Amino acid sequence: MKKIEAIIRIEKLDEVRVALEKEGFVGMTVTEIKGRGSQKGVMLEWRAGEYRVEFLPKLKIELVVNGDRTEAAIRIIAEAARTGAIGDGKIFIYPVEDVVRIRTGERGIEAV
Questions:
Q1: How far is CA 110 from CA 32, 47, 64, in A?
Q2: Domain with 64 in it: what CATH number?
Q3: How far apart are alpha carbons 92 and 69 in whole angstroms?
Q4: Which of 36, 44, 51, 80 sits a CA distance of 20 to 30 A from 110?
Q5: How far apart are CA 93 and CA 31, in angstroms?
Q6: Range of 39's domain?
Q7: What's the pLDDT tens digit per position in 28-45?
Q8: pTM of the full predicted structure?
């Protein structure tokens, strides 16, 4: 099993969710976050002048998938989240040792 964490633009959530659901990836967690990458924030202009926003609002999508479906989930997220502009996000992949469903005690991929 693998855990996929994807940092994406807020406005791309519905596209990513729908694309994942079409391929059977239904369970996920979404968290509102702030972050910055190589663009180091953005300069904005207001009445009083320019100011820098260091951390931009983003979303983090987390899902655990069976190992043989990892590349499919990564491809789906990358295609649905891509705008081609700086700030599209990143995808991180981690090994998952085990999962336990609290309600039933099931373990492994059945618990996902």
A1: 28, 56, 11
A2: 3.30.70.120
A3: 15
A4: 80
A5: 17
A6: 2-111
A7: 999 999 988 776 666 666
A8: 0.86
